């Protein structure tokens, strides 16, 4: 906190009231960031809406099939709420749903196309969530005295995103473009790990982290672990459109960092990963655009609703719900892979 001497108060010439000027560099940065945050948020929303309409105009479509896909916008809403409230990514919802659509209908959706659909939807939904959580970062409420909550430092938020993406994104794109492996084996191994991780998160939330104060800053140990998780996270994301955001959010939750840092960085990382993956999938011609175009508006709406839902739940309930969801959905996906 800057000292009282670090502040000066000025009265604007229009008489609108006092404004603060600070000699503290960090405080000046925060004031400037907050003054532009809402403008950037709305600019980002406008850019995403424009991107959607451009995609709608350019993408190949079969409108005659849309009545049979009446439920898809609702899937987009539900998936985006879960994804952007917990940071785990919408693939934990979209992959099971579109796998079922493949089995119960005449749609020619092989596993590769199911992953491409999930990435395309999340490119819109997770991007809205990333904007919403980053806006929250720039408008953090003051932490109450004697509270176990901790503020999130801008540099921790930014460095986490850049570090993870610098490693995971090349791995993801290389795996998408060049590697062909037995996806079933990887899915079972990864989701088995997710069951353990989800269970550990729930146990930690209600035991060692129950009344402990949140961690205020990442350490070199945290950077090293995040860097190591980025390699398998990028690889699994290429196969299933979910992985890197899930690992980042779960690690930061387990280490008892603030919800804003865990969920916000996971949404930003997932957003950029999904956009890059969708561009590559478009070049390969494997995206079923009818499903993406119907689900994307719902995903954007769900992403808008996700942050207030997460804040209403609070860190403890959110961690519990996220851990339960990941563990249960992982068991479900393992069951699908074995049948």
TrEMBL record:
Q: Which GO terms describe its cellular component?
A: plasma membrane
Task: Report whether Transmembrane helix shows up as a keyword of the record.
Answer: yes
Its subcellular locations are: Cell membrane; Membrane
Entry keyword annotation includes Transmembrane: yes
Could you list the residue ranges that cross the membrane? 40-59, 71-100, 187-206, 226-253, 260-280, 286-306, 318-337
Which InterPro entries does the record associate with it?
TM_pro_TauE-like, TSUP/Inactive_protease-like
User: Which topology term describes how it sits in the membrane?
Assistant: Multi-pass membrane protein
What PANTHER family does this protein map onto? MEMBRANE TRANSPORTER PROTEIN MJ0441-RELATED (PTHR43701), MEMBRANE TRANSPORTER PROTEIN YJNA-RELATED (PTHR43701:SF2)
Q: Which family does it belong to?
A: Belongs to the 4-toluene sulfonate uptake permease (TSUP) (TC 2.A.102) family.
Name this protein carries in UniProt:
Probable membrane transporter protein
